[in-house]
């Protein structure tokens, strides 16, 4: 299962985005694919076993460290 570190955003970069709130200890989304996406700062798993389409364009605020994350830019199958 591939794991990706998400890209960190500043609050200014995330302005206007629909931000998903992550709760520490529980992924924002789980299931439907084989990718795991981790916080770019603290490596907390924010989305587990999801399809790439589930991550495209999302912004997540990590419940552990508070940083803003967006999808990692990687190869599209």
Short description:
With 77 residues, the chain is mainly beta. Helix content is 5%, strand content 35%. It contains 1 helix and 8 strands.
Question: What features would you describe in this structure?
Answer:
It is globular and about 30 Å long. With 77 residues, it is mainly beta. It has one helix at 52-55, and strands at residues 3-5, 7-9, 19-21, 29-30, 35-38, 45-50, 59-61, 68-70. It is 5% helix and 35% strand. The two termini are 14 Å apart. It has a four-stranded mixed sheet with strand order 1-5-6-4. It has a four-stranded mixed sheet with strand order 2-8-7-3, with no helix packed on it. The model has no long low-confidence stretch (mean pLDDT 93).
């Amino acid at each position: 299962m591939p794991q990706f570190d998400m890209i960190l955003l500043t609050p200014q970069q995330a302005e206007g985005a629909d931000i998903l709130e992550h709760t520490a200890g529980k992924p924002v989304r789980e299931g439907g694919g084989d990718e795991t996406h981790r916080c770019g700062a603290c490596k907390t798993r924010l989305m587990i076993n999801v399809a790439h389409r589930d991550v495209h364009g999302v912004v997540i605020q990590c419940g552990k460290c508070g940083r803003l994350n967006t999808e990692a830019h990687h190869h599209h199958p």
